[in-house]
Amino acid sequence: MSVPRTLDGFDVTAAVARMLDQPALWWQALGLFVAHFADWEQTWQAAIGDDGLEQKRVHALRSAAANVGAQALSAAAASLEAQLLKKRAGQAASVPDSLRSSLLASFRQTWRSAAEAWQAGTPESGMGPR
Prior knowledge:
This protein is an all-alpha fold. It is built from six helices and no strands. It has a single domain (12-120), classed as Four Helix Bundle (Hemerythrin (Met), subunit A). It has helices at 12-18, 23-36, 40-47, 51-68, 71-88, 97-120. Helix 2 crosses helix 6 (97-120), helix 3 (40-47) runs antiparallel to helix 4 (51-68) and helix 5 packs antiparallel against helix 6 (97-120). The two termini are 15 Å apart.
């Protein structure tokens, strides 16, 4: 099976290394990321206003992004998550819109890149959706 060595928005080499140097395992994780987070934008936006629920949505994205090597997305999610935690602890009055805008832009670019790569994989090669 031929797994992409590069993917816009991802550090594929580092992610594959974390997955016991098994490119197929990373590819499977990427497919799960695409499927699981397909509706993330809508569920996240619906959670805005409930700091606890929003923090959970952002945390899940941060963790999954780090797992598949989407470092910039993980960092954007970490920044928003940290601010939400501060707000919940009474250490911040609000969450800057810029953090949410940055996360949204990063999510859209990263998820689209992953989804396009996943869709381009063919069932015959074992690389795409089944």
